[in-house]
Amino acid sequence: MTAVLELGRVHAEDGQAEGARALGALHGVTLSLSAGVHALLGRPEDGTLAVCEIASGKRRARVGTVRVGGRDPRKSAAARRRIGAVLARPDLPEVPTVSALLDLVAALRGARPDLERLGLGSLGERSPASLRADEARAVELAIALATPAPLLVALYEPFGAVAQVDRGELRAVCLELAAGGACVLVATSVPSDAAGMADRVHLLEHGELLASDAVASLGDLLEPQALVLWIDADGEELRGFAAALGEAPAVRGVAWDRGEGGAPAVITVHAAEVEGAALAIADTVRARRARVVALWSATPALDALRVAARARHLRPWPAAERA
Amino acid sequence: MSGVAATRPAAAGRWLAGAALARQRIGAPVLAVALLGALVAAAMGAVERGHGPVGAPDRSVLVVARLVVPLVSFAICGAVLGRVRLGDSAWCVARFGVPRRTVTLGLVGGAMAACAAAAALAVLAALAAAYGGGPGLAHDAVATGWIAALGGASYAACLAVGHGMLRLGRGRFLVLGLDFLFGVGEGALAVIWPRSHLESLLGGSPVLELTQQASSVILGALALGAWIVAAWRTGD
Q: Of A77, A140, B95, B182, which alpha carbon lies 20 to 30 A from A69's?
């Protein structure tokens, strides 16, 4: 498969902390991404923002090569015309209204972004200067997703500090773009977001690529979120509680374990969304008057994922695709 | 829509995008700086008139050219070009596939126009205060107004080159400092700085014994050259 985004032994910093040290840096990262939805999993300190900034053409790499569709986006306006990007800080041109901004984008790119599709129609008459940062990022997101004939769409934390955007719709648009031959790069620090959006996951740690693999092969490392609950209950009471919880529509599955020697029982609640599971637990606890000892989110944390990834010896990016 | 028709507005939009960006950035802060500059210039004119009405207009215009024009241009460039590197300032439009140098050309052009207007306003305010209603104001206003405007535009273009240097465009401080340092002389080092030619045109000592016509041509060439260099350095 032809590579769309190629980074060759890139050393670079992000420009997040203006006037001070960069938040994150890359230390000799080599990466080759073809069409599809890719998640770049890591924190800004690991260099996720730096990747998005150099791939979008905002910043140049200190050392190494960056190519999007075979051209350096920092030096090629033609390449940038086919790149959509949402970076950490919104950077929109000063125009009277968001609608005028969309007209400007249409004049420059030949296609007018559609705010309605992401549910942002209400922002049309606002002045870009009056938008909150999350609203401005949402407008940037709509513009990025409407890039005509896109080569690359780089989205930095598209679920964080972005207002009003429908996640399902965002995922659908990303899949459409990928099907059309675009490389959609989603940089996130939340493993469940990476699993929910992408076909492949690339783990960054301290500016180096730790692992790259298909989401499917990461298996239970990126399992849907779960909540673990400790309650003072035993026998029938515990079974009844678990059964009631299992009937809640938001809950996918319930596993329970009786506490030994007077210890509280442990109930693990699997759900598509942790909020839904939490509400189901609250309702069941209220209905059955159970006494909750503790509650813990079992969502795999980024650090836990890294440890697990190292332990599994996840293979590095295949040599054929790297070349 | 045919392909040709679709690309025409895009091409025109690309060329105008930088100028439109500058027009949006020239807002209340730029106006406030220009008015403050005019106020300070008027105060200088009044002080010079207080020292003695004979030669007060010439002295006040020179002081304004030495202090007010560079500082007002510096502040206006900061507002229009931003307190970042020039390429980063153009990024908000360049990200949509417009070459940075195209955006920068319009952006710096807008800053030059604003600085020219502010410099002319300052000099006119100083003259008005120095004359205090006496005769000769209209004649002097026409003669010095365009020189101040050219000086302001030249300062803006040179500062724009500085905006493209060092982290966060801090090269602008370097340009301002070097202009203050070397622009005061009459030797070869002063030739490339706007201050020396602006002073020469407003009644100061000539640089390298150059005529005022030569100084005005060099000042214009500095503005044009620095404008092109500033835009060119930002790249595609």
A: A140
